[in-house]
Specification:
This protein has 162 residues and is α+β, with helices and mostly antiparallel strands. The chain has five helices and eight strands. The chain has a six-stranded antiparallel beta sheet. A two-stranded antiparallel sheet has the order 1-2. It is globular, with a radius of gyration of 27 Å. About 16% of the residues have low confidence.
């Protein structure tokens, strides 16, 4: 027993005298530049909007807790990404950078003329001719297609805020 204890003490002593393993330092790699991924802000907007799928429609709603109307959804998603935009669809359509339909990118806002003249509905474009929106009191936040006959006939234009 004494021999085992002596062996343990000597082993610990010798281990304390050994050198530490050499740590290899590699040069820090730079992350992607904005030139490499110029649409990253739009992708963040798209991703955040996708996280809200299924939230109920609520007229005047501006938070996930209360629910969203269409422009409340777009305003909230942009705000969570550090971008302030107007509250209602008609005002959102008056600002931002005008985007041609063939130039749409994820995160752009798409506008429709639904129940009155001018922009009365808005959604967030997510690519592949699809957009996320809060359509009406009978539906939750969802993905729809711009090719759908209802939206195709009512498409008004697009704006970019990022």
């Amino acid at each position: 027993m004494r021999a085992a204890l002596l062996f343990l003490i000597v082993s610990l002593f010798l281990a304390g005298c050994s050198t530490a393993p050499k740590i290899q330092h590699y040069p820090k790699q730079a992350g992607p530049s904005k030139q490499q991924y110029p649409h990253s802000k739009g992708m963040k907007i798209q991703s955040y909007a996708a996280s809200l799928l299924g939230i109920p429609y609520k007229y005047g709603g501006i938070t996930p807790r209360t629910g969203f109307d269409c422009s409340g959804l777009t305003m909230y998603v942009h705000k969570q990404n550090g971008i302030t935009i107007p509250r209602v669809a008609r005002d959102q359509f008056k600002q931002g950078k005008l985007i041609a339909r063939q130039a749409l990118r994820s995160g752009d806002l798409v506008f429709f003329e639904t129940y009155r003249k001018g922009a009365s509905h808005v959604g967030i474009y997510i690519g592949d001719n699809q957009f996320i929106h809060s359509p009406n009191k009978n539906k939750n936040v969802r993905i729809s297609n711009l090719s759908n006959s209802y939206y195709r006939q009512r498409y008004l234009g697009a704006r970019r805020y990022w």
